[in-house]
Amino acid sequence: MRYDFAVIGDPIEHSKSPFLFNKIWSEHIMNKQFTYCRINVNKDQLEDFLKKTHLIGFNVTAPLKEFIIPYLSKLTPAAEKIKAVNTVVKVGNQWHGHNTDGDGFWDMFSANISGPKKNSDICILGNGGAARAVTYSLNERGYKGVVLCRSKKGNFVWPEILFRSIKKMKASAVIQCTTLGMHPATENRPLCPIWKGEDMPLAIDLIYNPNKTKFLLEMESLGCKTLGGSQMLTFQAKKAWEYWANVLNIPHI
């Protein structure tokens, strides 16, 4: 039996997921039975894609993490709370959705950084699917903060604040959750307030290509410690594989 997986998004050429999963599976006893590829799917093609695809599971990247939810039959508790999906599996004739971004972020965060104190404010840039996962993960662990965005979407556990309404703010960490600055448009970056206070915030960018985005380079120039998103990608991929393996009754190794 062959198990076909993929990652979908629009655009999708930049995705490193095929490399990551082939690495995860490299020593698996069934590795010859697994395939993984990139498939470009936009939001208007989702319904047709789900009806026709031969895949048994797939990952979801920007900008589809929220758009895909109405087409799924079931969500895991994590996906329900985050309101975004990055991992999908076929169960019978139904598609079930899960989210591994929150746990992937936390594994990266806790592996590299002692972390800001829980009574300090964290600033999230953007309010898409990745921002929902990061906010949920931090909130579950007792952190508090705000979400800066261009327009409010609602259903966040932290307050959404419009970029244009904030000129200066203090934060212990700022986490860049948009796609601005991702290859090939590497000169882009999100709007940022002026950081006030004696201590500059820790700066994290979830983008993994390039390793250091324009946002991170500018934050470094201000004296911030920085962290890119490549490790998060690896951690969330491992969580996605664990989910697929459990649902499909495949040995993990």
What does this structure look like?
This protein is α/β, with parallel strands linked by helices and 253 residues long. It has 2 domains: 3-99 and 232-248, Leucine Dehydrogenase, chain A, domain 1 (Rossmann fold), CATH 3.40.50; 102-228, Rossmann fold (3-Layer(aba) Sandwich), CATH 3.40.50.720. The chain has 7 helices and 14 strands. It has helices spanning 17-24, 46-52, 77-82, 101-112, 129-140, 214-221, 230-248, and strands spanning 3-9, 34-40, 57-60, 74-75, 87-91, 94-98, 121-125, 144-149, 160-162, 168-169, 173-176, 194-195, 202-205, 226-227. The strands form 3 sheets. Strands 2-1-3-5-6-4 form a 6-stranded mixed beta sheet. Strand 1, helix 1 (17-24) and strand 2 form a beta-alpha-beta unit. Helix 4 (101-112) packs across helix 7.
CATH superfamily of the largest domain: NAD(P)-binding Rossmann-like Domain
- How much of the residues is beta strand, in percent? 15-25%
Pick out the low-confidence regions. none
Question: What coarse outline follows from CA principal-axis ratios?
Answer: globular
Helical fraction equals: 25-40%
Distance between the termini: 17 Å
Strand order of the largest sheet: 2-1-3-5-6-4
Oligomeric category: single chain
What is the CA-atom radius of gyration, in angstroms? 18 Å
Query: How would a textbook summarize the main sheet?
Result: 6 strands, mixed
Instruction: Count the domains.
Output: 2
Average residue pLDDT: 93
CATH architecture call of the largest domain: 3-Layer(aba) Sandwich
Count the strands? Answer: 14
From the structure above, extract its key features.
six-stranded parallel beta sheet; 23% strand; 7 helices; 2 domains; Rossmann fold
